[in-house]
Write a structure and sequence with these properties.
The structure holds 2 protein chains of 2 kinds. Chain A is extended. In chain A, β10 and β11 form a beta hairpin. Chain A is α+β, with helices and mostly antiparallel strands. In chain A, the strands form 4 sheets. In chain A, strands 1, 2, 4, 7 and 9 form a 5-stranded antiparallel beta sheet that branches. A 4-stranded antiparallel beta sheet of chain A has the order 3-8-5-6, with no helix packed on it. Chain B is an all-alpha fold. Helices cover about 70% and strands about 0% of the residues of chain B. The chains are: A alpha+beta, B mainly alpha.
């Protein structure tokens, strides 16, 4: 049997796969969720400098600046509308309301309270208190095994269009706790240095020439996106993705120069795992 | 809130059908293929302006799909679940399972053989003989040398031929 025969048989193999929905909008939704998860990761400070990942999106508010958001039901944070400047191009997420806590089991409706003026999203921090899968209203979900209880995931969701409440779906025996805060998400522009190169963090508009990172020496810096791509075409843009790539790509570590925003002054180096994939 | 990079929507609309077929060949499952494609496109979005400028966006998406699928198979899948509409996609056409005489259909034999190939062999065969890519292009996507691509392709083809030949022998015995 010739390669040509194999080719023809392979071509006939896939069944009809009709596109009966708007795939682009589904992809757009994934991009938004991904960005929000990255923003939430930045907010709780799990971007460990030891793995030197690119800086994700910046979340700022007075209530967050003191450290992690816990799951203490008694903890009530004060509303704030003060944004602290983050890396250029990052979203600033500003708290506009007090944080509310709701304990639930199975599918329940969470009351958010009245939305303040200017709110564009609801920042959520969802903790599984027993094994199972829990779904946010926009389709995102988290799954906890027995060993992973309790685990917390953060996600900003769109303002509910049909009232001041969110429906969290879970199996009948799955217990969870959610903290909700109305927030305002503000996009910022990338910087442009004297060479005309953009610098900042990746966002909806794409990736700047110089991508914000935390260098191995702990210093905030920038690396050229082309250098990142030369190491891995799917360079990490979040702590979780960096960890995934570390696991997937083995032990080889490649370092690339890290610069100030001028793209010329070297201030350290950025380490990234590289390899041939799993 | 989510402005779209110029040309990306058109690319998705124009090339998704072909990319989805490749994803199906890599995964063998319609829902998983759709999830893989959407994830790859979402990973491509932030880099679009540079990828599009380079002139090979489809190769980039294929590369991301190959890598994501490798990760999916190598450990527990932590990605998103298939989105709206995915459940409507068809499974393998039942009519292709058996022909009118109850004999095993070539395509099912080929699918089963493809499914049992080691991951790298399956990637090489799909990219070379389904997507009609050159050895160099496949090497770029698989992050391998051209020699590795040739050897992986050769081994994979040999197993597919063997499976089809065995099926032919069975039919001859039964006729």
């Amino acid at each position: 049997m010739s390669p040509h025969d194999i080719h023809d048989r392979l071509q006939a193999l896939p069944p009809e796969l009709p596109a009966t929905f708007d795939r682009f909008e589904l992809v757009r939704a994934r991009v938004r969720r991904r960005r929000r998860i990255q923003a939430a990761c930045a907010a709780v400070g799990i971007a460990a400098a030891s793995i030197a990942v690119p800086v994700a999106l910046h979340v700022s508010s007075d209530s967050l600046s003191g450290g992690e958001r816990g799951i203490d039901p008694a903890a009530t944070q004060s509303p704030s509308a003060t944004a602290v400047a983050g890396p250029p191009g990052a979203d600033n997420v500003v708290d506009l309301s007090e944080t509310r806590t709701h304990d639930g089991t199975g599918t329940e409706t969470v009351q958010l309270g009245a939305d303040p003026a200017g709110a564009t999203a609801v920042q959520t921090s969802l903790t599984c208190l027993s094994p199972g899968r829990i779904h946010w209203p926009d389709g995102a979900s988290m799954t906890c095994s027995t060993a992973e209880v309790p685990s917390t995931s953060q996600l900003a969701v769109d303002l509910p269009g049909d009232g001041d409440e969110l429906v969290i779906r879970a199996g009948p025996g799955t217990s969870w706790q959610i903290e909700t805060t109305y927030v305002r998400v503000e996009a910022t522009d990338w910087g442009v240095n004297a060479s005309g190169d953009t610098y900042g963090v990746a966002n909806d508009r794409g990736t700047p020439e110089l991508v914000a990172v935390v260098a191995t020496n702990g210093q905030e810096a920038y690396v050229y996106a082309d250098d990142l791509d030369s190491v891995s075409n799917t360079a990490a843009t979040s702590p979780e993705e960096a960890l995934e790539q570390q696991e997937a790509q083995g032990d080889e570590t490649v370092t690339i120069p890290a610069y100030e925003s001028d793209g010329e002054t070297v201030v350290g180096e950025f380490a990234i795992q590289a390899g041939d994939g799993p | 809130m989510s402005s779209e990079p110029a040309g990306f929507r058109e690319f998705v609309e124009a090339r998704s059908a072909a990319l989805l077929r490749t994803a199906w060949m890599l995964t063998g499952n319609a829902a998983t293929a759709e999830d893989l494609l959407q994830t790859a496109l979402a990973r491509t979005w932030p880099h679009w302006h540079r990828i599009a400028d380079g002139g090979h966006p489809e190769a980039y998406v294929r590369k991301v799909m190959v890598r994501l699928n490798s990760r999916r198979l190598s450990r527990r899948w932590n990605g998103e679940r298939p989105s709206d509409g995915v459940g409507l996609l068809p499974a393998l056409d039942p009519a292709m399972d058996r022909d009118d005489h109850g004999q095993i259909d070539d395509r099912l034999v080929l699918l089963e053989a493809l499914t049992t190939l080691p991951l790298r062999q399956r990637q090489a065969v799909v990219l070379r003989y389904f997507d009609d890519l050159s050895v160099d292009a496949v090497a770029e996507i698989m992050n391998s040398s051209t020699g590795t691509v040739k050897s992986q392709t050769s081994k994979g083809l040999a197993k597919l031929r063997s499976a089809l030949a065995a099926k032919s022998l069975v039919e001859q015995e039964e006729s």
